[in-house]
Structure formats: structure tokens, C-alpha cells
Amino acid sequence: MNAQFKKGALELCVLTMLADKDRYGYELTDEISARMDIATGTLYLVLKRLKDDNLVTTYLQESETGPARKYYHLSDEGRKYQTELKEEWIQFVKAIDEILGGRYE
Amino acid sequence: MNKQEYMYNLFEALRPFDEDVRNEIISDYEEHFADGLANGKTEEQIVEELGSIDELIADLKELKGKGGDKKGMGFDSMDISKAADSLVKGIANFVGSFAGTVTKGAEKMGEGFADGASDFADSFTKGVTNAAKEVYNKGSEFAKDLSDSYKATRKTADGASDVTTEEGSGSSADCNEIVVEGDCANIYVTASPDNVARVHYTNHGTPNQQLAYAFECYQKGSTLYGIAKRKSFGLTNFFKSLTSPRIDLNVEVPRDYKSVTFKTASGVIQVEGISARNAVVGDVSGDIEIKSCGFETLKVNNISGDITIDGVNSDVITAEAVSGSVRTAASVAELKTVTTSGRTNIITRNVNKIQSNSVSGSIEMTLDGCDGFNANASSVSGRINLLCGESNVNGAKSGKYNLGSGRVQIKASTVSGSLRIETR
């Protein structure tokens, strides 16, 4: 798959998973890599990039089992960005689908 | 590989990066291992899933820009607001032009077919245009929001608009090597009038195309780097990179540099009037032209573009193309050319040794001021002609031929092309 495309898609996946609740790294990466053939390491960079861009924030929280975990929280900007990115994605996929076979009205 | 080995390799690979970046990644990975093990995975499984460290480092470099000791100016495409505004137009245009192409294709399909096809194309176009409009409308809102949020979070956005080209440049007076690379950039190289190396970047694209590319110029040790490349930050960039803008890199090189490297993927490369010890020029689909230059060694690679070397003085020249043709007119002691299907045309002076190979391309050599050659010539199905003063061998079979003084050593082979060697 085109690398740019994949990265953008992963960004959308991560943002969407964070839309309903805060999650920690393993939770996010394990869920996504279970569905896609992708190096988990890449996802940590996606998370880092989102954090550097202030689309997500992080905080540490004790876990019952081991050392403190880093939790990711979707910022207001991130939420807005996720909504629009998702909309853009759907429109794009629709347009492609129409070209491929007109499955949509 | 177990966790300890993997983490050690990761630690080593992260050395060039800032401490905070290093620590963050190491602690993310440590946490990932802890959670993975707690979920019943083995260290080896987790290592496997995390994936290649090399790839991670490559991604990280892209994210961080080039690591290392930057000097001089760094320049990043700026002004996200203006780009965001026109990003969506780009999508609409793309989808629109695609529909247009289909319509054109349908018209060309022939008369009997044309009516049905054009009906199809019409409705198709309508559907796509509507979709494109929708994307555009949604997108405008998105563009506005995006620009706001970026304004809030990024200090680089300056709100300027109506910029038609984007430019940047860097220079150095104390280097002796230069590396210039561009994804889709044209590279024009000339001699520096004042012994200062310069790289000037001009992006003629639309604002969103300008945003999709970054230019960096920096010095590392005694090497000046000028790199123009496609940026990567997310989905939006995928849309922007569907079409390539015209980007020019104008380079000025001081005399007698130790090494010069010019590489691009789809642009042309023109090098004129420079001298350097070692030169490397590489392209994928653009033409390469090297004119009136002096080198000790020159290496040129191209895939589908042509290579023209004209009026060049070099001890050794290597020129390789796949489907492009190779044309050299040079004063060169040792020349090597390789093509797959492209034609090879060689004119040389002062040559001692030539090796030229092709699969289906023809090879022609003219040796200026040469009193003879010793040729190992082979062609499977092409015609071989060897001419040296009075002695001519026309329609020769593959084999070794000694003509005149036999001074110049030639090895030439093509499978289906013809082969002609001539002195004058």
C-alpha cells in the first residue's frame, strides 16, 4: 500500500479510537495491528506525531499490574481534526467506489 | 531476537537523535513489551510485531527532518492556512480531470461505440462531478477549521496569501562536497562565479503542492546538502501528492570540488561548465545533460530518460541507462556504458578503453584521432561493422578483431542491436 496513504489512514484510526475514551499505547497498537499487517513501531511514531502536533495529549496513570502507563487523550483540536478527517475519508472512499462500480447513489 | 537484543539495537539506532526523542521512544517500547508480556505474548512475538528498526528510523527521520548537526538555513514549506484552503480544490480538480479523461477516451473509441460510450461517460462524469463537488464543499469547511487549529498550534503559519512561487536557498563558502537531491525537481547546475556553493529552490506549484514539498539546505562537515522532497504528515498529504508541481533547484558549484552529487526522480538534470574530482548524476525518468565539464570520474545513471554527455573531459566515465539512450562526446581514458533497450552513441578522443553493453539497443562508436583498435565485438542478431582507415570489416561475425595499431581496447556487446565502430 502507498506509504503516505497508509500513514494517513493510521492517523485516522488512532484518532477515532481515542474519540470515545483515553487509551494507552498497547491497547491502541494491539487493536490496530490485529486487523492490519503493519509494524507496531510505526504506530508509536504516528502517536508521537499527533502529540507533537497537539492533536493528542498524554498523561501517566498507575496500572494495577505494572508500572505507570502513558495514556493518550484526544485534544479539542484533535477531535475537530478527527471529525473532518473522517468526513474527508468517507467522501474520498465514496468517490473511488463510484469510479470502481457505482455502489453508491 | 529477544527483547534485550532488540532494545539494545533500538538504543544504538536512536543515538543520533535528541535525548527527549530517544527517551520517549525507548519508554514507549518498554511499556509495550511489559503490556505484551502481561497479555501472554513472547518477547520474540512482540519483537516481530514491532517491526524493523531501520524502517522506524527512516520514518523518524522523516518526522524530525534530517538529524545531525544542521548549519545554515533550514527551510520548511510554511503557511498551512493557505494550503489548506486550496487543498480541497485539488481533490475536486483531480476527480474532475479524471472524469474528463474518461470522456475523451470514450470519444476516441470509434463510431459504432461512441454513442453508448459517450452516454456512459456523461453520466459517469455527472456522478463524479457531484461527488467532487460534495468533497469540495465539505472540504472548504474542513480547510477553514484546519487552518484555524494550525494557526493556534503552529507559530510558522503567517497567513500570507497570493504567493505564486515558493522559494528558499542556502549557501556555503567552506565546503568541498555538495549533494543535491529532489523528488520531482529539475536540477540546473552551473559554475559559481565567486567560489560560493549555492542551492536555490523554487516551487512553481499550487499552494497545496508547495505545502506538500519541503526544501532543506544545510552543511554537515564539509558537505553542503540541498534536499527537496515530498513531506509526509498524514492523510491530507496523500491528496496533495497526487500531482507533482514543477520544482527547480538551481545550483552553483565552485571549481574543483572533491565530489558533487545530483539526483532526482522525475526532473531533468543539466550540468554545465563545472569541474570536480568525482561526479555522480542520477535520474529515473528525466533526461540528463552534462556539458563542457571536467572530472576525474563521472558516474551517470538513468532509467527511462536519456543521457547526453557532451564536451566532457574525464579520466573515467560510466553511463548506465535502461530504456533511455546514451550519447557521449568526451575526452575520456576509460569509458563504460550500459543500456537495456536504449541506443548508445559514443564519440571519444584520447580513449584507451571502452566497454559498452546493450541488450536490444544499437551501439555506435566513433573514435576521434585514433589509429586503431582491438575490439572484442559481439552481437547475436545485429549487424557488426568495424571501420579503421583502409581496413573495414562489414557484416562481421562476433569475435576479436585487431584493426590498425590495435591501441584502443574495446569490448562491445549487444544481443539484438547492431554494432558499429569507426575511427576518424
- DSSP helix count of chain A? 4
The number of domains of chain B = 3
* CATH topology-level name of the largest domain in chain B: Pectate Lyase C-like
Total DSSP E strands of chain A = 3
Extended strand count of chain B: 24
Topology:
The complex is a heterodimer of chains A (105) and B (424).
Chain A: H1 3-20, E1 23-24, H2 25-35, H3 40-52, E2 56-61, E3 69-74, H4 76-100
Antiparallel strand pairs in A: 1-3, 2-3
Chain B: H1 3-14, H2 19-38, H3 43-50, H4 53-64, E1 74-75, H5 80-107, H6 111-153, E2 166-172, E3 177-182, E4 185-191, E5 197-203, H7 207-212, E6 213-220, E7 223-230, H8 235-240, E8 247-253, E9 257-264, E10 269-272, E11 275-282, E12 288-291, E13 294-301, E14 307-320, E15 326-339, E16 344-349, E17 353-358, E18 363-368, E19 372-379, E20 384-388, E21 391-394, E22 399-404, E23 408-414, E24 419-423
Parallel strand pairs in B: 3-7, 3-9, 4-8, 4-10, 9-11, 10-12, 11-13, 12-14, 13-14, 14-15, 15-16, 15-17, 16-18, 17-23, 18-24, 19-23, 20-24
Antiparallel strand pairs in B: 1-6, 2-5, 5-8, 6-7, 19-22, 20-21
Helix pairs in contact in B: 1-2, 5-6
Q: How would you characterize the overall build of this protein?
A:
The complex is a heterodimer of chains A (105) and B (424). Chain A has 105 residues and is α+β, with helices and mostly antiparallel strands. A three-stranded antiparallel beta sheet of chain A has the order 1-3-2. Chain A has one domain (3-100): Winged helix-like DNA-binding domain superfamily/Winged helix DNA-binding domain (Arc Repressor Mutant, subunit A, Orthogonal Bundle), CATH 1.10.10. Chain A contains four helices and three strands; from the N terminus they run αβααββα. The radius of gyration of chain A is 15 Å and the shape is globular. Chain A has helices at residues 3-20, 25-35, 40-52, 76-100, and strands at 23-24, 56-61, 69-74. Chain B folds into three domains: 3-64, no CATH class; 80-153; 166-423, Pectate Lyase C-like. Chain B contains eight helices and 24 strands. Chain B has a 24-stranded mixed beta sheet that branches. In chain B, strand 20 (384-388) and strand 21 form a beta hairpin. The longest helix of chain B has 43 residues, at 111-153. Chains A and B meet through helix 1, helix 2, helix 3 and helix 4 of A and helix 2, helix 4, helix 5, helix 6 and helix 8 of B.
